[in-house]
Amino acid sequence: MKKLLRNRKGSILVNSVVLMVVLLLTGAAFLKWTADEAYQARFDLARTQAYYVAQHGALERGLASLRSMDDIALPRVEQHFAPGSPRPYGTMNGYYTDCKVDPVDQIFNSEVEQLSPDQYTISSVGVIEFSQPNGEIYEVKRQFNMVVQKPALSKYFYFSDSEVTEFGEVIWFYQEDVLYGPVRSNDAIGIKNTPTFYSDVISVADDFIHGSGFNPEFLGPEPVFEADSVHLDDRASQLRDAAAAVGNYYDDSNGDWQTRIVAEPSGWHVMQWGAGTPFPDDGNLETDEFVPYSNNSAIFCEGPLQLWGDRVQGRGTVGAEGDIRLMDDIRYSDYGPRDLTSENQADSYYLADRGSSNVLGIISESRIRIANTVANGKGNGATSGATTDHSNKHIIITAALIALGLPVAPEDPYGCFDFENQNNSPDDPFGWDGYWWCDPEGPNANTPDERGEIWLRGSVIQRQRGYVHRSNCNGTGYDKEYAYDIRMWKTPPPYFPKETNDEGLYDFQITETWDKNPDRREDFN
User: Fold this and answer.
1) What is the pLDDT of residues 250-294, one digit of tens each?
2) Nearest 10 degrees: Cα torsion 441, 445, 446, 452
3) Closest CA to 360 of 290, 289, 299, 272
4) How far apart are CA 157 and CA 347, in angstroms?
5) Among 112, 318, 319, 414, which has the minimal tally of Cβ within 10 Å of its Cβ?
6) CA geometry: angle 97, 102, 104, nearest 5 deg
7) 77, containing H or E segment
């Protein structure tokens, strides 16, 4: 036992030394870890700061510059801006540099002379400098990118230049009206009873026109008053040019022809025949052509147009110089009467959620009118058939509609979305059009002419609000069942009129953003 004890003399000292070494190494590792964490925290802070500095540059230099330019001044080629001045950000310094705007190529024939591109990519690099423990200055860079586009008027669910008809009558939002998308007017908006608004309501006036029982419900943002007015052109210039560039511009032979376009499975069927004559059932047409569906279809015709079809595909816009008469449903191939009974029928996201890629614009330089046809409920058609029966009542419209008509004389009609044959009395010097369903001496004496509902999925933009229902004949026209197609905000129909103020400036809207990783140096070479 004594020999064993003698052999262990001095072991405490050795163990103590080993323990001290372990503690020193652990302490050094902890200090290193603490230093690394502090550095990583500063790096992450610098990385975040660089992102916002880059974003600041893109907004302050790029976007603000575009919003201050009219069509003549907007750049056609890549444009670079001076870097921002260095400034402190807490204990760090930073600045933005390499700020530029780059026009996105136009989506139709390059031979068309465009005033300016519709889209731009804006990019900017944010630089943040901070010191490391050894005193070395380190730079962190972050690039911010965004795509901006001229806002199309289809961003509004319901827009009007005037809320008063050509006869000086206010058209009211009523109890049954439910508005699921943005509403805007260059006039005072009239409200009776309790219509419901789920999104923005913007007016240039300082208040609403208060009708009887005024008690609107605003389930979205509070209304905005005294807003800037929005300019409306009286011609669809971009659509005209695009259609001419691709050979889809149809003249009317100086008024000698009339035009019909039907959305069929194989494309847009364009037909023209003699003005003032019935459609030739024998197929003897002046024009008989098909325009294939595509992602950027453009069709324009001179004079009035008859339009309908239930096989619309792709992205396209159809326009006319004169009145457009909707003879029956005009709807996407993937949207049918069955969808009207869906629980999502009034949902702004319905078509987007279904993954629909079909987008349609309809532009008239005069009026867009629901024709008084059997298919659209002519002759009190709403009183017969089931709700889902669309053979002789109702009309389905899946499109962004815009009526630009600017009257040449006071007695001429303004551009509006309305319906024809409104049963005005023959004693009415303004509205009589030769049609009176409820003629007291006729077979339908004092009978209403309720034609069904307008099932609209899209948006309505008009120079002047038009009637879609009247009290004439104890009820004439259509009830409204409108829902905004939310896709119209970011993906409008091609060649659709853009929103500008009275100075011709565009409030460019941001549609996409992304950034590049500061650790990838190759991104900045």
Assistant:
1) 999 999 999 999 999 999 999 999 999 999 988 899 999 999 999
2) -140
3) 299
4) 13
5) 112
6) 155
7) none
Q: Which of 299, 340, 361 lies closest to 452 in space, CA to CA?
A: 340
What number of residues does the chain have? 525
Instruction: Kindly report, residue by residue over 50-83, the tens digit of the pLDDT.
Output: 999 999 999 999 999 999 999 889 999 999 999 9
Q: Report which residue type is found at 361.
A: G
DSSP sequence for 292-304: ---TTEEEEESS-
Q: What is the pLDDT of residue 322?
A: 93
| Cα 251 from chain centroid (whole Å) | 30
Token pair of 273, please? 């025949």
Query: Beta strands 359-364 and 315-320: pairing type?
Result: parallel
Distance CA 326, CA 396 (A): 10
- Rounded to an integer, what distance in angstroms lies between the CA atom of residue 301 and that of residue 287? 12
Residues contacting residue 202 through CB under 8 Å, at least 6 positions apart: 182, 183, 184, 185, 223, 224, 227
Q: How far apart are CA 255 and CA 237, in angstroms?
A: 20
3-state SS assignment for residue 139 = strand
Collect all residues with Cβ–Cβ distance below 8 Å to 223 and sequence separation of at least 6: 197, 201, 202, 203, 208
Q: Which pLDDT score is estimated for 342?
A: 60
Q: Do residues 462 and 161 make contact, with C-beta atoms less than 8 angstroms apart?
A: yes
DSSP 101-140: EEEPPPSS-TTS--SS-SEEEEEEEEEEEEE-TTS-EEEE
Q: How far apart are the first and last CA of the chain?
A: 76
Per-residue tokens: 223: 């209304």
- Asked whether 499 and 506 are in contact (CB, 8 A), the reply is yes
Q: How far apart are CA 61 and CA 84, in angstroms?
A: 9
Distance between CA atoms of 214 and 200, rounded to whole angstroms?
Answer: 18
- Radius of gyration of the chain from Cα atoms? 32
Contact in structure between 183 and 156 (CB atoms under 8 Å): yes
- Cα dihedral 260, 261, 263, 264 in deg (nearest 10): 70
Three-class DSSP labels, 355-375? CCCCEEEEEECCCEEECCCHH
